[in-house]
Each structure stands twice: as C-alpha cells, then as structure tokens.
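Following up on my earlier thread - several people asked me to post the actual chain instead of describing it. Fair enough. Here it is, all 190 residues.
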Amino acid sequence: MATTADIRNGLCIEFNNDIYQFIEFQHVKPGKGNAFVRCRMKGFRTGRVLEHTFPSGHEIVTARVIRKPYQYLYKDDSGYNFMDQETFDQIVVEEKLIENNDFLREGDVCDVVIHEETNQLLSCELPSHVALLVTFTDDNAVAGNTSTNATKPASVETGSEVQVPLFVKTGDKIKIDTRTRAYVERVKDK
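Reply from S.P.:
Thanks for posting it. Predicted structure:
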C-alpha cells in the first residue's frame, strides 16, 4: 500500500473502479486544520479528468502498469499499428487511446501503457515534444508590428494546425509540446 506521500506525476492508481494517472498534484498545509493533497487525475477507461482531494497520509492503491516503447508503423481500418522495439511483435491501438494522435508520424516511438495484471492496453503516449516541418503559414505577417505576443495559424507535415509566433515561416522546423499543443521553439537543422 502506498500513501499520499508517494504521489508523483505519472503514478497510476486504482480509484472508483478505474485506473487513474496523476497529471498534477499539490501538497497543501493550511495554517489551521490538517494537511491534504489536491490533485488532478486522468482516467484511462473513461478518459475524463477528475479533481480530487486526499487527506494527508491517506492510503492509495497503486496500479501495476508497464510502459513499453513501440514504434508507429501505419494506420488502417482497424486502428493504429505499432511494433514492439524488442520483440518486433505488432499491436493495433484504437484511436481513442492516443491523445493528440494528429501529431503522430510513421517511425515515431511512443510509450504504450499496459495494465500488468489484466494485460489490458490502457493508453499510448506520444513523446512530450515533436519536431515537425511547417508546410503552410501566412508569410506576410511581420514580427514587430504588434506590442503583444501575436500568433498565426500554421499547418505542419502531419496535417495538424498549431498557433506559432509571427516570425515562423513556411519550411521552418518547429518543436511542439504534444500535451498542450503549444509551440515551443524553432529547430535548427544541422
């Protein structure tokens, strides 16, 4: 058994007949009263985000999960096809189990999360950042014409659209945070 002292981002627990993964948490020690842990968790089966408060020292049941690297091969009618990096076995992952799957390119390596006891596929997590080529954006927008952080839409090589700063041009390679869909920086080719 674990307690709230063991909570960290990415930890999976069994809670309310589902398996939840901690997204963020905060230990709170008010001046008056007992300490508690305020957290946000995402359910693997339902996909919903739950906000919950645990009293400090509360026992939690950790879920035994395995994270294995799988390489994305292709998409067909049955779903997204991945290959195990060690055994070369192939699996099919449903679209609903891959968050922000519009950033996925052939050859990308993702972490597949499997519940160890039931051998059930829980989710497929993209790398936290991906570098993608900008295929189209309005190159007439000029940086310096505004006093705020102005952005413009840009299409990337996977067909997704993201907001980028005005100085990004068609043909630039940019780094994108796959969790927030936010522009991070331009990538310089070597």
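The radius of gyration is 20 Å. That should answer part of your original question.
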